[in-house]
Structures are given as C-alpha cells and as structure tokens.
Design a protein that fits this description.
alpha/beta; seven-stranded mixed sheet
Length: 279
Amino acid sequence: MKPGWDERVRRAEALGQRYPFAAEVLRFYARLAGFQKRLEEALRGLVQPSRGTHHPYPLQGSSPSEHRSVLIRHFPSFLEMVQEVGPRELAAAAEALRADPPDRWEALWEAYWRGELHSHEGTVAFFPKAYLQPYAALLAAALRGDGGQEGPLAGGHAETSGLCPLCGALPQVSVLREEGHGAARSLVCSRCETEWRYQRVRCVSCGQAQFDRLVYLSAEDWPHVRVSACQDCRAYVKEVDLSKDGLAVPVVDDLATIPLDLVAVEEGYRKVELNLIGL
C-alpha cells in the first residue's frame, strides 16, 4: 500500500528523533509533506488526466498548463512555506521565485514535466518536483483507476525498464517486499509515485544484469536500507527492504540514511535521482 501523507509525516518525525544528524532535514520534509497533503486535497476533483493520447508515457499526454489556474493559485503559499522553514539555499531560491511572474513558474513546471530539468541541475529543480508531486500522483491514480493506494503494477510494463510506465520519470527509490520464498523488487517513481516491478538483479540506470558487476553498500545502523550500485555506469539507487522493517516508508527512509549516500559518493557513484533535499 502506498504510504499516505500522514504516515510519511509520522515516520519523518520518528526518524528525526532517532537520528539527530538527519533531524533538520526530516523536520523540513515533515512540513513539506504536510503541505503536499493539503495541496492534494485542494486539487482533488479539479484535475483530470488527458485521455486518448498515443504518448508512450500516458501521463505525458497531460500538462501542468492544462491546470494552470489552480496550480498557480497555491504556488505562492508553497514558496512561502519553503522560505519560512527550508534550508538556507532553498529559502533564498524561494524568495527569488516569489518575485518572478507566474509565467516563469509555469515555464519551470513545464521544463520539469518534459524531462528538461533534472534533479542534478541544482536547487531550482526542487520546486517543480516537490510542488507537482501531489498533482502528478492524482493524475497517475486516475489513469491507473486505483485511487493511488495499490501496490506495484503487476503487468503491462517490462520489468527491465528503469523509467516510470506512466510518466517516464526516473525512480526515486527501490523497494523489496516479501513474496513467496524470496523478495520481489519494485521501483517508486520520483514524479507521480507510481510503483512498478523491476528485476531483482539489474542496474536501474544502464540495465546491467551481471551480479558481479553490481555492488551493494550497507551499514549496521540501517539493516533494511542499502545502496544498489553499478560498476559499469557508476549509478546507484537506495533500496528499502520492507521485509526487514515493515514500518519503513521508502521515500522517508531514503532521507534518513544520508551517510549511505555519502559513502556511495565517496566510492565514485552517482545517484540516479536525487531526493527532495538534493542527496
């Protein structure tokens, strides 16, 4: 089941108390998730995906411009929240964006939606990614017809594709769930939060499937989280094993395990998709 906003907030608060080094990051995420919850509630019933398109990624048939008026209505309060509680660099960027005309905001959303603005391109990428997540999740749930609460897509998409089957975005995190006598793997989309099955032993970035070319980095402090990296393309993704910790919320536990990212970067690996705090 996809974790709800309240569940994410509770997990962020709990992990913030457990790991002081991540407390500031998790406090900010808790405030962000609270805003995202309110935004999703405000958008519900007002946005619908375009249908009947032949785009290989169905969600790309829709566009934030189609829902410009409702999205612009809530963006100033989003920027105000980030300016108030965000890290210094994000707060400064939010202040600058508040002075820009709405056309600039819309251009930023569209660039991100079309895949022209990647998480590795600096602070500005945070704003469309964080703001449009509830919007994209609503559209994706409508396309799936599941209300946004189902588990990984069972079919209709190759288990060898590292791109979201609905919107074409990169995965934020990998998830393992107990299934039969082993564990099934899935990927969680960084944009619309769609979850789809993916081969257990396979690089998310380049598709390398030889076990001896894949590297796993872990630490005793987080037995349920590890880095899954590829020696060929030097890319990595965090992997959260729900069979080892059923209380884990993958996108939150990714934020709480900063030291694993630091180790991966020191080893020369690059994250497939940075999370909302830029790690």
